[in-house]
Automatic annotation (TrEMBL), chain A:
One GO term describing the cellular component: membrane
Record GO terms (molecular function): ABC-type phosphonate transporter activity; ATP binding; ATP hydrolysis activity
Alphabetical list of NCBIfam families matching this protein: ABC_phnC
Protein name (record): Phosphonate transport system ATP-binding protein
Domain of life: Bacteria
ABC transporter domain: residues covered: 2-246
Coiled-coil region list: none
UniProtKB keywords: ATP-binding, Cell membrane, Membrane, Nucleotide-binding, Phosphonate transport, Translocase, Transport
Lineage, highest ranks first: Bacteria, Bacillati, Bacillota, Bacilli, Lactobacillales
From TrEMBL, chain B:
Record-given protein name: Phosphonate transport system permease protein
One Pfam entry name: BPD_transp_1
Membrane-crossing residue ranges in chain numbering: 32-55, 61-80, 92-115, 135-160, 219-237, 249-267
One GO CC annotation: plasma membrane
The keyword Calcium is assigned to this record: no
Alphabetized GO MF terms: ABC-type phosphonate transporter activity
Annotated compartments: Cell membrane
PANTHER family the record matches: ABC TRANSPORT SYSTEM PERMEASE PROTEIN P69, PHOSPHONATES TRANSPORT SYSTEM PERMEASE PROTEIN
The organism of origin for this protein: Alkalibacterium olivapovliticus
Every ABC transmembrane type-1 domain range: 84-267
From TrEMBL, chain C:
Homology family: Belongs to the binding-protein-dependent transport system permease family.
Its membrane topology: Multi-pass membrane protein
Name listed for the protein in its UniProt record: Phosphonate transport system permease protein
PANTHER family cross-referenced by the UniProt entry: ABC TRANSPORTER, PERMEASE PROTEIN CC0363, PUTATIVE-RELATED, PHOSPHONATES TRANSPORT SYSTEM PERMEASE PROTEIN
Matching PROSITE patterns: ABC_TM1 (PS50928)
Molecular function (Gene Ontology), one example: ABC-type phosphonate transporter activity
Source superkingdom: Bacteria
Secreted in keyword set: no
Length: 259, 275, 270
């Protein structure tokens, strides 16, 4: 369970990114966060795994007060939260399976870490993660030989192999074409149903958000302006989130990460 | 997955997933490669007689010469200008003539310009063979044919420039997009006209930039050609090193460094403008 | 003519003056260098030698060319040259690693990077033959001096190419690893090293190709390899031997070039 209580976040340059966020997300929910570029979507997601610090309020994740974690605690806390990025963030010059195995590195014995020797069960686990996203046959190919959609699925497999409780996805389909985007979103949906992981997605495509997510959170200038079921999102709600009809992004609109 | 000979000796490893699927992983080539590199290193070590203990024991000799070069003998400056200009002139003349002759060579080597594979193959091979000869070796041969002096050095630089620019240019020409050429032909231009307006604008900047780069490198090469008697500052270096007149060697190297630095900056400036 | 068209026409950049200036300078340089170089035609003696060399290449000393048993045949000399270049490249590429990090503005502060860069330029400008002579003072004549020379002269170029690799590292993976809870050591080991390794290797193979060419000339100062026998054979007018050496050299360098291009293509494209 993720709980934001009166959370505020201001960047050192004075930009207020989050204002009075109060939010509860239960285990196993599939949540889409929508809003304009710079509205605070990315900041919201990145506070959950302490990629960003909050200034005020408390943020509890599965009973842990995120703001109070220090050093090593932050790292072990992050082990339970997976993250997916717009630009995939893979090591392109090495094989698919080695990329997936990176997520298990912190759990290895020190000598295995140095030599890069992964135990058999981790390898099988990594292969199973690849099987879940349908690219098992690419396991020993180099990542730079794969298409963008396949690369994002490698990243997804990497996160699955981490066995997190929560997956945070920051614009996972923004650099993919519409067809591949749907394939990747299908994978998210499947994982959410099969493993009961909570999934929080920042997404620019409103149609995809409404189609896949159970719950939609609309953010405008750092404040939550809508929080409810995706079926109940109406044109008025969208106008409220995006300001006016003209601002509603088209599917091909390029999107920048916040700040 | 097609099996190679290696896979037949070292069987692929099989992983079984919980849902019954099997994945085969080829045996890694890394151990084999490491072994080869290791053997090569050991053998090379033996052949060349490398003995690391010599370095701490006698390494100071290297530094002694280096320190002997400082301060450089400023009085020697007067003797440097002549050979220095020889060096610059050799590399200029060799570079310009080499770059000019590289054009017909590159065109004759390019299969999309001259569609005669026999001719292409011949010129490509000629450029490759020319490129294998180190400049100093061709300079050595040239001194036997043209006698000692700057002519031999110029010929050596000319040959190297020709092969270097020739190869890079035919590679570039062969990768040129022929679409514009076709478009111009379709407008009624002749083949030569289409070449002039479609291909030349594409390859000219590369040609100039590669030529400048070759010239930059040639100055360095030209500086040592004197070693085999092919003129330039190399002669001075050879002579002064022979006499163990290290302060003068230091002076030659200092001036050489300055000249190379200045020429590289100028050439870099123009190459930046071209791209 | 339409007025705005007229105006635009006059705006066309006038580069005639610029191009003429460059043309004049180039012509002047060419004339100056033609005057400077002592152009000699082919003397009768030169022509004789040229035809002798050609004849030597066509009728090489086969016994010398295929003498695999003794230490004085072409195969052994080429082998020694390969060994010098190989060890020199290995030493040079290892020495270049710390230097390249000290040269990268994204790793160290700008002044440090600048000073290291100057030192490397300094190292690079001294001709390899001068190093060869300096190292002979340390090790005595022979291939060992050649290895040390190769190591030192390859540092300059290798470290410059390494810097490009370091500066172009993909930093996205580091963000991903932070989000997974990896330590700095783990990030370097699994995020940076795999990226550096294949790129560094590709640079090193490329440099080996060049070092092999350079190693052939080190023999001229007595630092081992096939250069010395070549110069002796020429001075003694043993043209068939010269032919054998040249044939061996050309074949070796062509073979290594083809092989290294294949290898690097594999490294880059997987």
């Amino acid at each position: 369970m993720i709980e934001f209580k009166d959370v505020n976040k201001t960047y050192p340059n004075g930009v207020t990114a989050l204002k009075n966020i109060n939010l509860t997300i239960d285990q196993g929910e599939f949540v889409a966060i929508i809003g304009l570029s710079g509205a605070g979507k990315s900041t919201l997601i990145r506070c959950i795994n302490r990629m960003h610090d909050i200034n005020e309020g408390t943020l509890m994740v599965n009973g842990v007060d995120v703001g109070k974690l220090r050093g090593k605690q932050v790292r072990s806390f992050r082990r339970k939260i997976g993250m997916i990025f717009q630009s995939f963030n893979l090591v392109t010059r090495t094989s698919v399976i080695n990329n997936v195995l990176i997520s298990t590195v912190p759990d290895l014995a020190w000598w295995r870490k140095g030599l890069g020797l992964f135990p058999q069960e981790k390898k099988v686990d990594a292969l199973e993660a690849l099987d879940k996203v349908g690219i098992l046959d690419k396991a020993y190919n180099r990542v730079d030989q794969l298409s963008g959609g396949q690369q994002q699925r490698v990243a997804l497999a990497r996160t699955i192999a981490q066995h997190p409780d929560i997956i945070l996805a920051d614009e996972p389909v923004a650099s993919l074409d519409p067809v591949t985007a749907k394939v990747v979103m299908d994978d998210f949906k499947k994982i959410n149903k099969e493993t009961n992981m909570s999934i929080l997605i920042n997404i620019h495509h409103v149609e995809l958000a409404l189609e896949y997510a159970d719950r939609v959170i609309g953010i405008r200038q750092g404040e939550i302006v809508y929080d409810g079921k995706s079926e109940e999102v109406s044109q008025e709600v969208l106008n409220q989130i995006y300001g006016s009809v003209e601002n509603i992004p088209k599917a091909d609109d390029p999107e920048e990460a916040d700040i | 997955m097609n099996e190679t000979f290696y896979d037949k000796i070292f069987k692929p490893k099989t992983y079984t997933l919980s849902n019954g699927k099997e994945v085969k992983k080829r045996a890694s080539r890394t151990p084999l490669i490491l072994l080869v590199v290791l053997i090569l290193t050991v053998v090379s070590w033996e052949v060349t007689g490398v003995d690391l203990s010599v370095i701490p024991a006698r390494g100071n000799q290297f530094i002694v010469i280096l320190f002997d070069m400082f301060p450089p003998n400023l009085n020697f400056l007067g003797n440097i200008w002549g050979p220095l200009f020889d060096t610059i002139q050799m590399s200029l003349l060799g570079s310009i003539t080499g770059a000019l002759l590289a054009i017909p060579f590159a065109l004759l080597s390019s299969s999309n310009i001259i569609s005669n594979s026999l001719l292409n193959g011949f010129f490509k091979l000629a450029l490759s063979i020319l490129r294998t000869l180190p400049t100093l070796v061709s300079a050595l041969i040239a001194t036997f044919i043209f006698g000692l002096g700057t002519m031999a050095g110029t010929v050596a630089i000319f040959l190297f420039t020709l092969s270097y620019i020739g190869k890079l240019m035919y590679e570039h020409i062969e990768s040129v997009d022929m679409g514009a050429f076709e478009a111009h032909e379709s407008m009624g231009l002749s083949k030569v006209e289409a070449f002039r307006y479609a291909i030349i604008p594409d390859i000219l900047p590369t040609y100039l930039s590669v030529s400048l780069y070759a010239f930059e490198g040639n100055i360095r090469y030209a500086a040592i050609l004197g070693y085999v008697g092919a003129g330039g500052v190399g002669l001075l270096l050879d002579e002064r090193l022979g006499w163990r007149d290290y302060p003068s060697v230091g002076m030659v190297l200092l001036i050489l460094m300055l000249v190379v630095f200045v020429i590289e900056r100028i050439s870099e400036y123009f190459r930046m403008k071209l791209t | 003519m339409n007025k705005s068209v007229q105006l635009q026409l006059e705006k066309a950049p006038n580069r005639k003056l610029y191009l003429t200036t460059i043309g004049v300078i180039l012509t002047a340089l060419l004339v100056w260098s033609i005057l400077g170089v002592n152009i000699t035609g082919f003397s009768q003696r030169g022509l004789d030698i040229a035809s002798n060399i050609v004849r030597g290449i066509l009728t090489p000393d086969l016994e010398f060319l295929f003498d695999f048993t003794s230490g004085g045949g072409v195969p052994y000399l080429l082998f020694e040259t390969i060994a010098i270049a190989f060890l020199g490249t290995i030493f040079g590429s290892f020495l270049a690693i710390p230097i390249s990090f000290l040269m990268s503005p994204s790793v160290v502060s700008r002044p440090v990077a600048f000073i290291t860069r100057l030192v490397v330029i300094f190292i690079r400008t001294i001709p390899s033959l001068v190093y060869g002579l300096m190292f002979i003072r340390v090790t005595g004549p022979g291939p060992y001096a050649g290895v040390l020379t190769m190591s030192l002269t390859s540092i300059g170029m290798i470290s410059r190419l390494y810097v490009d690799v370091i500066e172009n590292l993909d930093r996205g993976i580091l963000e991903a690893m932070t989000s997974m809870g990896c330590t700095t050591y783990e990030k370097i080991r699994y995020g940076i090293m795999p990226q550096l390794f294949s790129n560094f290797l590709s640079v090193t193979i490329y440099r080996y190709d060049m070092n092999l060419r350079d190693a052939t000339i080190l023999g001229l100062v007595g630092a081992g390899g096939i250069g010395a026998p070549l110069i002796f054979a020429m001075r003694a007018y043993r043209w068939n031997e010269v032919g054998s050496i040249l044939i061996g050299l050309v074949i070796l360098i062509l073979a290594v070039e083809i092989f290294s291009n294949k290898l690097r293509g594999k490294l880059v494209n997987g």
